[in-house]
Amino acid sequence: NAGVTQTPKFRILKIGQSMTLQCTQDMNHNYMYWYRQDPGMGLKLIYYSVGAGITDKGEVPNGYNVSRSTTEDFPLRLELAAPSQTSVYFCASRPGWAALFGNIQYFGAGTRLSVL
Amino acid sequence: AQTVTQSQPEMSVQEAETVTLSCTYDTSESNYYLFWYKQPPSRQMILVIRQEAYKQQNATENRFSVNFQKAAKSFSLKISDSQLGDTAMYFCAFLRGGGADGLTFGKGTHLIIQP
């Protein structure tokens, strides 16, 4: 069981470049999330989705875009990368409140992004 | 909005000792869940233990237990018989019940288990 898979694991971008961080889950979870973790800090929510076609902003959405065309995939798009976006990015998913353990989030392994 | 505070940036104990990590939170919600996550050097986020706010009984998972004080908004993690593999960052996190928004994390405590 793969769980939540993120690609790439590591990437270096130049200022102004764009990229997409991929996230896919094979647990048929409705809810999916993107977080960023800056050095010495906890994770902060960027965007989330409750199902295909539905997304909403989290605490730190500026500079990012998301889409959710399928239940499995939730890509995060960085447009015009800036040094402030240097961080570790985590994707997560959970079943939703109807499930027995619907409050438990499952995390991917993270993507370390450096913008130089 | 809710906040989560972990006041101990770093702790160090000897192997086999018991250690307690502190966490306080602030919320106006009555329905919520609390979690402790472990993040080893691999960066993987691993769920250690969770607590439902409506349950008075403290959660336990093997060597890990919590002291949940709802009125004081306190949620500490106790690790008994600590092992070298417990060395990691530990994050306290809050989840609002019934909503779709994500977890709110504290800044973390770096726990070092000395041999």
Q: How does this model look, in words?
A:
The complex is a heterodimer of chains A (116) and B (115). By secondary structure, chain A is mainly β. Chain A contains no helices and 11 strands. In chain A, strands 2, 4, 5, 6, 9, 10 and 11 form a 7-stranded mixed beta sheet that branches. A 4-stranded antiparallel beta sheet of chain A has the order 1-3-8-7, with no helix packed on it. The N and C termini of chain A lie far apart (36 Å). Chain B starts with a strand and ends with a strand. With 115 residues, chain B is mainly beta. Chain B contains no helices and 12 strands. The radius of gyration of chain B is 14 Å and the shape is globular. In chain B, strand 10 (88-96) and strand 11 (104-105) form a beta hairpin. The chains are: A mainly beta (116), B mainly beta (115). The A-B interface holds A 31, 33, 35, 40-45, 48, 50, 56, 58, 88, 90, 92, 97, 103-105, 107, 109-110, 112 and B 4, 33, 42-45, 47, 50, 91, 93, 95, 97-98, 100-108.
